[in-house]
Design brief:
heterodimer; A: mainly alpha; 63% helix; B: mainly alpha; 21 helices; 2 strands; disordered N terminus
Chain lengths: 116, 525
């Protein structure tokens, strides 16, 4: 089994779990779903630079500065940015969810329990 | 760097004018965060001055664009393919010039007292302006994502400002939806970068034009993913359900800015799909246009029905916003520059008119016993005065002459090529306008048409409900904008016509952006 297959199916499983959680009606599940989704996104962005085991994105003496000799550094920079943003957004969402829980006395995303 | 001659020639700040619309709100916002304990009057003044300065910069940028065509700014003087590029063209200047009066109006309105309900209103407001300006100016797909996040983070704060149970509930839905959309945006960015190896839009456009057959499906998938993201922001058909309730829950200053945030989605669609998948994109040319047209037509139709069924004035306005986005998407979907120009003119008018309407809706809510609910007849103070303003704004929003909405829609109908789905265009534009008129007439008669009230109930209204000075100025400013769009119609039409023609020439963007990196470099392309 190739590394690519493993990574791709890992991302797929993460995303599937994320969407399952997102479609549940409780804020905590939704936040977990968004977290999983951001993991899937980060791995996906990382994979956009291709999987090149053993290559670094750091220039070395005596090695021609061609993409064939190095790992593409840009996706890694993108992933870093995406991690920072998704972490901040998750924190923000947690605050909103806690506040909504306190005000509405329920953790349902609609702010009220569904009528049975 | 090989461009020191240019840099010295365009001395001083003039060379950096394309980045100033981001820098000014950033500095102002950061200062306001630090000063959050100082008196509200200082913060109002500072925030207002920053927005006025932004207005001046946008004016200068507009003049520069008229002189030079496309103004390209390479951040950090990195060559275009390696760094982030800002690009100002007529469309970007148009959106910025629309943003400034809206921002001024929102600030003036908020200074009536809304901004004192939380410590950071003005800081959040400036950060949102920064995000919007950046999104209008950036020419890099990932950077666009970052600015989307900046403005969304600020808008979450503004939406929840002065919070209540309903705002929290709608706020949660809004935040979760946008976070999912952000994740999809990143997937799209990953796909496009993985296949094409760049995120600069001009570079992307050049590489898509010469795309090998085998890679086409992946790029196509990326394009559709991006469309989902932008359609959510712009409230296109299957993705608009969040908008009316969110807007109804937002405070008036936030709703004014939200009026341009849906237009940001339209802007992003125009930018990405004219440049990346425009006429010269080979097999992928006009990829999403037919779908855009039909989705826009369905959106406008359903939004008109929604407006008819709305149970409160602000809910009705939310549906009008959705409907105007539908009309815009039909204009974009036609794919000709004349239709696009008509759409852009309509965009200017409808944004200003809807912002003014949200402002009025807040007054109605405060003046009326029972808020702005349309379900029952209730007592209202100053009904004649507010009703008069309502009548004018309703005419503007529904697209009746003499206002610009009429002209925008007729431009769209007149210049649409008499082929293909033009029957649908006529039917939907005219039909939805009629239904909107009925909905507005119904709302107006529910709200304002009432027998004279006997004495006491009028006095029961709290004194704080009366429109304050800043709020009146805000409404005047927006109303002035609406009238100016109609009075100076020929100038505005010429301008948007130029903008549409500029957009159709993707080659000029590539030359302007990619031609600006004469640096010899060892970095592989």
């Amino acid at each position: 089994m190739s590394l690519e297959f493993l990574l791709a199916s890992g991302i797929g499983v993460l995303a599937a779990g994320a969407f399952w959680l997102l479609l549940r009606a409780r804020t905590f599940d939704v936040i977990l779903g968004l977290t999983l989704l951001s993991y899937a996104v980060n791995l996906f962005l990382f994979a956009a630079g291709r999987l090149n085991p053993g290559r670094t994105p750091l220039l070395k003496d005596g090695v021609a500065p061609l993409l064939a000799n190095y790992n593409d550094p840009l996706p890694q920079a993108l992933v870093l940015t995406a991690i920072v943003i998704s972490m901040a957004m998750t924190a923000l969402l947690l605050v909103i969810a806690l506040q909504a829980r306190a005000v509405n006395a329920t953790d349902h995303v609609d702010g009220q329990e569904p009528r049975a | 760097m090989s461009a020191p001659m240019d840099a010295t020639a365009m001395a001083g700040l003039g060379a950096h004018i394309a980045v100033l619309p981001v820098v000014i709100p950033l500095l102002a916002g950061a200062t306001l965060v630090v000063l959050h304990r100082s008196s509200i009057a200082y913060r109002r003044l500072l925030s207002l001055l920053a927005t006025l300065a932004l207005g001046l910069v946008v004016l200068g940028l507009g003049l520069a664009v008229e002189q030079q065509g496309l103004v390209v700014y390479q951040l950090g003087n990195w060559p275009s393919f390696a760094g982030i590029v800002f690009l100002a063209d007529r469309l970007a200047v148009l959106m910025l010039a629309l943003l400034v009066p809206l921002a001024l109006a929102a600030q003036l309105f908020a200074s009536g007292g809304d901004d004192a309900r939380g410590a950071h209103f003005h800081a959040l407001f400036q950060f949102q302006l920064m995000g919007l300006c950046g999104a209008f100016l950036t020419h890099d797909l990932f950077n666009l994502f970052v600015f989307f996040e900046v403005l969304l983070a600020a808008s979450y704060g503004l939406l929840l400002h002065g919070q209540g149970g309903d705002r929290l509930r709608q706020g949660l839905h809004y935040v979760v939806l946008n976070l999912v959309a952000s994740a999809l945006f990143l997937f799209a960015v990953g796909v496009l970068y993985g296949v094409l190896g760049t995120l600069n839009m001009a570079d992307l456009s050049a590489r898509i034009a010469t795309l090998p057959e085998a890679q086409r499906p992946l790029v196509e998938a990326g394009a559709w993913l991006l469309l989902i993201v932008f359609a959510l922001k712009a409230a296109l058909l299957p993705l608009y359900f969040w908008l009316p309730r969110t807007y109804a829950a937002a405070s008036a200053p936030a709703a004014i800015l939200f009026a341009i945030m849906t237009k940001l989605g339209v802007y992003a669609v125009i930018r990405v799909y004219t440049l990346l998948f425009g006429v010269d994109a080979g097999a992928l040319a006009g990829l999403v246009l037919p779908l855009l047209f039909w989705a826009g037509a369905s959106t406008a139709t359903l939004a008109a029905l929604g407006a008819l069924a709305a149970s409160s004035l602000r809910g009705l306005l939310g549906y009008l916003v959705v409907g105007s986005a539908g009309v815009l998407f039909m204009a974009v979907g036609l794919g000709t520059d004349a239709a696009l120009a008509g759409g852009l003119y309509y965009l200017v008018h409808s944004t200003l008119a809807m912002a003014a309407f949200f402002l009025l809706a807040d007054w109605v809510r405060r003046h009326r016993d029972g808020g702005d609910a349309l379900g029952r007849v209730a007592v209202m103070a100053r009904a004649a005065w507010l009703g008069g303003v309502f009548l004018l704004l309703a005419m503007a929003a529904a697209g009746l002459p003499p206002f610009g909405g009429f002209l925008g829609k007729s431009l769209l109908l007149a210049y649409a090529e008499p082929q293909g789905p033009v029957v649908v265009l006529w039917a939907v534009v005219l039909g939805s306008s009629l239904v909107n008129i009925i909905a507005l007439a119904r709302a107006g008669s529910r709200l304002f048409w009432q027998a004279p009230v006997v004495g006491a109930s009028r006095a029961a209204l709290p004194a704080s409900a009366a429109p304050r000075f800043g709020e009146r100025v805000a409404l005047l400013l927006l109303a002035f904008g609406v009238v100016a769009t109609a009075v100076m119609a020929s100038d505005v039409v010429n301008y948007v016509g130029g903008a549409a023609a500029q957009l159709m020439d993707a080659g000029a963007y590539r030359d302007a952006v990619l031609g600006r990196d004469p640096l010899p470099t060892t970095v592989p392309r």
